Amino acid sequence: MSTSSRVEQNNKYSTVAAAATSTASAAAIANANSVASLSGVVDFVGHSLSTSKFTGVVISAICDEQKLEFSNKYKGSCTLLCSYDSQGVVLRIVLDNDHEHLLKEYMISADTDAAQLGRRTYAISLDAENLVLRFASDQDQQLFRKVVENVKHLRPKSVFSQRTEESSASQYFQFYGYLSQQQNMMQDYVRTSTYQRAILGNAIDFQDKIVLDVGAGSGILSFFAVQAGAAKVYAIEASNMAQYAQQLVESNNVQHKISVIPGKIEEIELPEKVDVIISEPMGYMLYNERMLETYLHARKWLKPQGKMFPTHGDLHIAPFSDESLYSEQYNKANFWYQSAFHGVDLTTLHKEGMKEYFRQPIVDTFDIRICMAKSVRHVCDFLNDKEDDLHVIDIPLEFLILQTGICHGLAFWFDVEFSGSSQNVWLSTSPTAPLTHWYQVRCLLPMPIFIKQGQTLTGRVLLEANRRQSYDVTIDLHIEGTLISSSNTLDLKNPYFRYTGAPVQAPPGTSTQSPSEQYWTQMDTQVTRNSTSMLNGGLNVNGMGDTAMDITHGLIHQH
Predict the structure, then answer these.
(1) Which residue in 437, 464, 480, 524 is the catalytic one?
(2) Which residues does the UniProt record annotate as the domain Protein arginine N-methyltransferase (predicted)?
(3) Distance, CA of 527 to chain centre
C-alpha cells in the first residue's frame, strides 16, 4: 500500500531523494557533497531520487529591507535538508554540529519568492520571513537554486494528484508512515507468508531479474525478491516509511541489491524497465484505497511478457442473512428517536442518523453459512485491465437462493492469485480461510427482503471511484418475477470496524441435534475414558491416549 512524507515530531529527518534534471547536474551534485551521497537535485515530477543536503550554510534575516541590512539568524553555520513532499519541498534546518535538534522547518512551494543575490548568496521568502542564505560554495548555491526553480516550474499534476484530494492523500500517507501500521500488516501471518511463498516458490521468475516493488512500505517484499535471487529491486515508497526501509536495507547489507526510491510511481522515473512488479495493493473489498490503480499504472515500467505478483484478483459477492447485525445497526440509529434526551427532542435527526449508520460497510468476519447463495465472482486482471476500468465498476448479479430467509444485504471478500512459472499461489480473505487483516465486508440494506429457496435474486453492485481514495457503493437487488426490490448506497471510506476477536458463532438454527445432549454425551465419554485409563495405570496426556505410569520406583527410597 502506497505512502508519503510527513513531519516527524521526534526530529528524525526523512532523507528523501530528488530527481536529476540532467546528467550534468546529477554528476555535479554527487561531487558537491560526497558525505551525503548527493546524486541529484530535487525534481518533484520525480526523475531519479536522492538525498539533498547542503552544509556550511550561513543564514541571515533581513532586518531592514530599504538598507538591505542583515543579521545572523542562528549562531554558527547550518545544514539544509531538502525532502520531497506532495506540495513541494520540505526544508529543514539544523546546526552543522547538532543534527539532533530541528531549528526550523519550511515548505518551499510553487508560490515561494526567491532570487539570487551573488555567486554564493540566495534570498528566499518563507513563512513571511525574508532570509538570506550564504552557501559554502558556488556549486551548492546553484544546486539549491535549481531545487527552488524545479518546484516553481512543476509539470501538470500527476495522475495520482488528479484523482486524489490533497487532504485524503496527506492522511493516507501519514497513516502508512507509522511503524505500528507497517507492523500490523507484517504481522498478518497469512498475508506475509503467502507473499514469501509465492515469490520463493517461483524463484525462476526472480533469479537475476530486475524487480519493481510498488508501495514498498517497510520493504519486506523487496527482501523476499532478493531472497529469490533478484539482481536489482527498485522499492518505491511515497511516505516517510522510505527512510525506515532504507535503514533496513543498509542494516541488512543489501544496498547493492535494493534501491529505495521515495515518491509516487505516477511521478518518479526509473533508469530501466523491469521484469517483475510486486505489490500489496489490495484494500477492503479489494478496491478500497484505489491502490490498484497505482499498481496498474506501474505497468508502464514492465517489460513485454513481464510478471505481476499478484496477477489477478477475484471479488466475491453473496447475499446474506444476519438479523443480529441488522438489529445492532438499527438500534444504534434509534438513539436519535428520543424525544426527551436531557430535555431535548432529537427525533428530527432520526432519519439522517438511520441513513448514516446504514451507509457504513461492516468490517468483520462471519460464518459462511449465513450466505444464502453461491457467491458471484468479479475478476480484475492486473496484467491487462486499464486504470480507467477501475473508475466505475459495474457488477451484474444473479443468485439462485439456496435457503429461505431474510436477505439483509451483500457480503464481500476477495482472493488474489500469484501466477508464476513454477506454481500458482492463492491469498484468500474468504470466511472459510484463515483470518487476515482485511477480514470480510458486509453492506446492509435498510429495507431487508424476504426470499424463498429456489427464487432468483438479481441486481447489480456499482462501485464509483471518488477523490477520497475510495468508492461509493450502490446496491440494487430485485427478486425475479416479483415487484420486491431493495437498494442502498454506502460510503466505503467510512466503514464500521466491528470485529472483536471473539470466535465466530454458527448462525442460529443450524443445529440438527440437541447441543446440550451432544455436550453431556461428549463429557460422559471423556470421563469414562479417563476412569478406565486410571484403573489401568494410565493417563490421557494432551490427547495422546493412554500413557502408562511406572509406579515401581518411588521418588524417595527408604533405607
Answers:
(1) 437
(2) 313-481
(3) 51
Q: Is 289 labeled as catalytic in the residue annotation?
A: yes
478 has which bridge partners? 458, 485
Residue environment code for 435-467, b if the CB has 16+ CB neighbours within 10 A, otherwise e: bbebbbbbbbbbebbebeeebebebebbbebbe
Contact between 265 and 27 under an 8 Å Cβ cutoff? The reply is no
Catalytic residue (one of 237, 289, 415, 417): 289
Contact 481, 535 (CB under 8 A): no
Q: Is 546 annotated in the active site?
A: no
Q: Could you report the per-residue pLDDT of 4-38, keeping only the tens digit for each?
A: 333 333 333 333 333 333 333 333 333 333 323 33
Active-site hit among 43, 85, 140, 188: 188
Question: Minimal CA–CA distance to 369: which of 321, 438, 302?
Answer: 321
- Respond yes or no: is residue 391 known to be catalytic: no
Q: Which residue has the cell 510553487?
A: 110
Q: Which of these is catalytic: 275, 280, 322, 417?
A: 280
**What pTM does this model have?**
0.72
Does 491 participate in catalysis according to the annotation?
no
Per-residue b/e over 414-430, b at no fewer than 16 CB within 10 Å? bbbbbbbeeeebebbbb
